[in-house]
From TrEMBL:
Keyword tags: Cytoplasm, Lyase, Transferase
Subcellular location field: Cytoplasm
Reactions the enzyme catalyzes: citrate = oxaloacetate + acetate; citrate + acetyl-CoA = (3S)-citryl-CoA + acetate
Pfam families: CitF
Record-listed E.C. numbers: 2.8.3.10, 4.1.3.6
GO MF: citrate (pro-3S)-lyase activity; citrate CoA-transferase activity
Main location: cytoplasm
Protein name listed in UniProt: Citrate lyase alpha chain
Species of the source: Psychrilyobacter piezotolerans
Database matches in PANTHER family: CITRATE LYASE ALPHA CHAIN (PTHR40596:SF1)
Length: 512
């Protein structure tokens, strides 16, 4: 059947179950219930600390079919997921569900475990590399569930997914489990995606390579949520934890898009004292941040807060007084990690506080402007950041759908055509973010405003910006690339794309 977005989503999916169909971005309004949390008390004299992971695994209630969780703050330098899953596999356990906030190329060892049915289900907000390729090829027993960052916190807090054991990579910990991400050789900054795991899992194990004396003087996740502490030689590779790729684009096309975006924001009605702002770590997004910095200084604009994954460019704006505070769920570079440790106005937050649609008010609801990217956009303003145009999984929502829903002005920046492929389609290959929450598309050839934003269209008519319809943009793109050939898919569903409230937006099918 087709849902209200015109996507073909069945009522029941093998390996996933009954589908709750997407009903609109505000359809989940109402009273929500938090799951009860299982706690095992630690008595005076009990030891949490161990220097051997196998010793802790011997104490844990491991079983076939269990759900284990991991966070991705160590990004492409993470050692912990592979380390733990290798030992679980060696013990002969099968049918494991992995709930990882994101999966990177460094987790390629999981492919063999998928093929051997050790791992049969995966929940994640973002998947790239060999694991994404394996899922796209239909190797995972059950469809991967691809949620948003806020959606991950929601499914854990609600009990829609119960975590048996959470394994938390802890850059620094004391012997009682007070952990932080800003110290140690594997420092990654904020631990926002790990907090809900620690809070809701039946058992939580902190794995660290930097044990400090009790009490750890900086605490991101407290001892009250940790059952065991394990010391290992290394939890990650610092070169992969901080990629070093957070640089402003030098591409003239990208710089043109950034300049147009900044001009749009200046004339949007949101460029004023007290504005709040979020942008990603991509080259064009960082160029927007640099342009915004210059404009805010020139126009003496002082913002309220910047949020999201924080970069050094945003830290610089904070240090210069352009934003009163920062809300940080993950750090993208060394400057952000250093700032999170040193600056009192640089506040770390949990993924739930950041973007959970079912709590009493997440930070994304207070955003004025957010800058987001896209793989594809269709003429209904729906956005795909989950797959390539050939249907191969290469990413996922992360906070894309969360921030787009919350912000007053959600702007998508993208090159109109890349590698002879148009970014504007009649129908996106996979739908990650519904068009009703997307306000503006900015490309190097023109800007399309969602027709529902009539007040924005009227306001921007007075500028020299190249405003046009989304259909006109598509025609320009196809004039450059030609009409794209339709990709054929089988009926096999390899992934389910959930919206932030747990309803299903779309499915990813295996390509023929």
């Amino acid at each position: 059947m087709k849902n209200i977005l015109g996507r073909e989503v069945p009522d029941n999916i093998k390996g996933y179950g009954e589908v709750k169909h997407y009903g609109g971005y505000l359809a989940s309004k109402g009273t929500k219930t938090k799951r009860s949390i299982k706690l095992t008390n630690v008595l005076p004299g009990d030891e949490k600390l161990h220097d051997n992971l196998d010793v802790v695994l011997d104490k844990l209630p491991l079983k076939d079919g269990m759900v284990v969780s991991f966070h991705h703050h160590l990004r492409n330098g993470d050692f912990v997921l592979n380390m733990v899953m290798e030992k679980i596999a060696a013990r002969g356990y099968k049918d494991i569900t992995i709930a990882a906030s994101s999966i990177f190329p460094c987790h390629g060892e999981l492919v063999e475990l998928i093929e051997k049915k050790v791992v049969t289900s995966i929940y994640a907000a973002y998947i790239s590399g060999p694991v994404a390729d394996a899922i796209s090829a239909g190797k995972l027993e059950n469809p991967a569930v691809m949620h948003t960052h806020g959606g991950r916190a929601r499914i854990m807090e609600s009990g829609d997914l119960s975590i048996d054991i959470a394994f938390i990579a802890a850059p620094t910990s004391d012997d009682y489990g007070n952990i932080n991400g800003v110290d140690g050789k594997s420092a990654c900054g904020a631990l926002g995606y790990a907090y809900t795991d620690a809070e809701t899992a039946d058992i939580t194990v902190a794995i660290t390579d930097n044990l400090v004396e009790y009490p750890n003087t900086t605490i991101d996740i407290p001892q009250t949520l940790i059952d065991y502490v394990v010391v290992v030689d290394a939890i990650g590779d610092p070169n992969g934890i901080v990629s070093g790729t957070t640089q402003i684009t030098k591409n003239p096309i990208g710089l043109k898009i950034a300049n147009m975006t900044t001009e749009l924001i200046k004339n949007s009605g949101y460029f004023k004292d007290g504005m709040s702002f979020q942008t990603g770590a991509g080259g064009v997004s960082l160029a927007v941040a640099a342009d915004m910095k210059a404009e805010m200084i020139e126009n003496n604009i002082k913002g309220s807060f910047a949020s999201g994954g924080i970069t050094g460019y945003i830290v610089d704006m904070y240090k210069e007084g352009l934003f009163k505070s920062l809300f940080d769920v993950q750090c993208f570079d060394l400057a952000a990690i250093k700032s999170a440790k040193e600056n009192p106005g640089h506040m770390t937050m949990s993924a739930s506080m950041y973007a959970n649609a079912d709590n009493k008010g997440s930070v994304v609801n207070k955003l004025d402007v957010v800058i987001l990217g896209a793989t594809e956009i269709d003429t209904d303003f729906n956005v795909n950041v989950t797959t390539t145009s050939d249907g191969t999984i290469m990413g996922g929502s992360g906070g894309h759908a969360d921030t787009s829903a919350g912000a007053k002005l959600a702007i998508i920046v993208t090159q109109l055509a890349n590698s002879r492929i148009s970014a504007i389609k009649d129908r996106v290959t996979a739908l990650t973010t519904p068009g009703e929450t997307v306000d503006v598309i900015v490309t190097e050839r023109g800007i399309a405003i969602n027709p529902k934003r009539t007040e924005l269209i009227e306001r921007l008519k007075e500028t020299n910006l190249p405003i046009m319809t989304i259909e006109q943009l598509k025609d320009i793109a196809e004039g450059m690339t030609g009409k794209p050939k339709e990709v054929e898919f089988t009926d096999e569903i390899v992934a389910v794309i959930e919206y932030r409230d747990g309803t299903v937006l779309d499915v990813v099918r295996k390509a023929k």
